[in-house]
Specification:
The chain is α/β, with parallel strands linked by helices. It contains seven helices and eleven strands.
């Protein structure tokens, strides 16, 4: 046990710090840990803006320490299997990604989700997952369209995003802290498609189609819901043991690009905090 963050960072037995404070504190805490020579795993979103994410990336590279956003869904078995199928040409060229994620929260209860100063709102807390998924399959968009509503405190409570790409592909994404949605996700391509079992952020399975052929993947690990973070923990430990300073599966560039998309969506929703 440590009395404060400084004592934690100064403990020579600590190799990596997992930062899971409110979003508004991610940059400050990450920079302090990096300055102390500690590797960092930072809860998503890695920061509240792309500029803050760039600060973290630059500091980690200068210090020679490992840094990664804790996008744990990237490390789930179904994600790897879907990407392998894509490499094998099962879906062809990805042309449409559809994803939603919403969990109802009561604004009367207050808390960080409704506090602009703490990085509240649906996009930063939940929207980072669908935006990341679209980036995984389609890369960074060329245009962002966003419509939604704000809470009385000025954070986004529900939004719909259309992301356009140079290839002509699109992503249709929605996020909400007003309602609980199925958490569905699908990828449609020129030769086939993938339909992830809801909620796509958790360990689970998916259905695949290629022409008239159909198939199913089922995760038999026995891990459910947030137990799936074990896959991420194992990957990060291996990355550090291998001497890596970024994850080849979820590099810092991806985290920055995802936040740049969210920055633009928040701008279009007139969120200034």
């Amino acid at each position: 046990m440590h009395e404060d963050y400084a004592a934690l960072y100064d403990d020579e037995q600590v190799q990596i710090v997992y930062i899971a404070a409110p979003h508004s504190e991610h940059r400050r805490l990450a920079l302090d840990a990096i300055a102390a020579g500690r590797h960092v795993l930072i809860e998503k979103p890695i920061a509240v803006s792309a500029d803050e994410a760039r600060d973290i990336a630059a500091a980690a590279r200068a210090a020679g320490v490992f840094a990664m956003e804790a996008m744990w869904t990237r490390f789930l078995p179904q994600t790897d299997v879907m990407l392998h199928l894509h490499e094998d040409g099962v879906i062809g060229d990805p042309r449409l990604v559809i994803a939603d994620l919403g969990f109802a929260a009561d604004p009367r209860a207050g808390g960080r989700l409704f506090d602009p100063a703490l990085g509240g709102g649906a996009l930063l807390d939940l929207g980072v997952y669908p935006v990341w998924l679209s980036h995984l399959w389609l890369g960074a968009p060329t245009a962002v369209t966003a419509r939604g509503t704000l809470t009385a405190s000025g954070v986004d409570q529900q939004s719909a995003l259309v992301l356009d790409y140079a290839s002509g592909a699109q992503a249709l994404l929605s996020t909400s802290i007003r309602v609980t949605s199925p958490g569905s996700a699908s990828v449609s391509g020129s030769h086939g498609g993938l339909q992830v079992d809801p909620s796509f952020v958790f360990p689970g399975g998916f259905s695949a189609e290629h022409g008239d052929a159909r198939g199913r993947f089922v995760d038999v690990s026995g891990l459910t819901h947030r137990d799936g973070m074990a896959w991420q923990a194992a990957a990060v430990a291996q990355h550090i043991d291998d001497g890596l300073r970024e994850s080849p599966l979820h590099p810092l560039r991806t985290s920055i690009d995802v936040l740049a998309t969210i920055d633009e969506a928040r701008r279009r929703l007139a969120i200034t905090a």
